[in-house]
Every structure is written in C-alpha cells, then in structure tokens.
Amino acid sequence: MNSNINNWRLNGNLSIWKYKYSNRSYKGFHIAISKTAAGSLQNLIDLFLNTTGKLYKTIELRTPAKADISATGCKSPAQKFRKLKLSICSDEVDQYQTSTVEDYLIIQISRSNLSTVMQALGRIRSGEDDFCIHPSNVKRDYLEQSIWFWLCGEGSKNL
Known about the structure:
Layout: H1 3-7, E1 14-19, E2 29-33, H2 35-49, E3 55-60, H3 66-70, E4 78-81, E5 83-89, E6 96-101, E7 104-110, H4 114-125, E8 131-133, E9 147-151
Parallel strand pairs: 2-9, 5-7
Antiparallel strand pairs: 1-2, 1-4, 3-5, 6-7, 8-9
Helix pairs in contact: 2-4
C-alpha cells in the first residue's frame, strides 16, 4: 500500500447511518459530511487514482448528530456506523457495492466509478445538500445501495 494513503487522515466531519425501518424514500446509506471532509476525501481519492494495486483505507467516523438524522424527516431509529472502509476494486464490480459488519460499513468502489464519487463530493463542497448516488441499473427509490449526501458542519442548515 502507498505510504501517502497510509498517512492520510480525515479532516472535517463525517458520519454515516442507515434507517432500520425505512420506506422507499429513505433506503440506503446516509452520509452527513462537512465541506472540509468532502475536500479531504477528494484528496484520498486522488491518491487512489494515482496508485496501482489493491487499495483501501479505514476511516473513523463521528457519531451522527440528532440534527443530521432528523433532517431527512424519517422517524425510524438509525443504525449508526463507527468506521468506514473504502476499498478500490476492479472495474468488474458494478460501480460500487456496500456491506456491513456490525457498526462497520464497507464500500467497494470500482476504479472507473471514482469520478462519480468525486463529483458528489464536489457538489457538497459547493454547498449542495440532499442528493444521492446509486448504481444506474436500478431505480434509486427502491435501492438499498443508494448513498445519500447531507451537508453538515460549516455551511449547513443541520448543525
């Protein structure tokens, strides 16, 4: 693994949750992220793009604030994640895949789909809020693999 990836540390606020009993409007994973954290993750993705081989990074997450979880309007209790493992995989994987182990979220992203994630992080940095990315072959409202982005921290209406 590249030493720059090993040495990279998250700056800013990042938390992730999933609603336990959600209807189709709240399916998937929800990420509350500050503009600073979005820029920091873009730096990590740049490192991934400029490095070959098997790549991953485990990131400690902050506990989602009540304001973050309630901002969506969903009344369901939330499953909160403590760690995120980003893993870059071959392009045979359809865009990205998610899996969970207790309070640990694993996102495997195909190298060719990193640009979609970079664009989503750029939207957060420009102040956009309340949008999602999802694999293109399934309607997003029914998809457990959707990833929702919510602006938190500086420039946020949630904190």
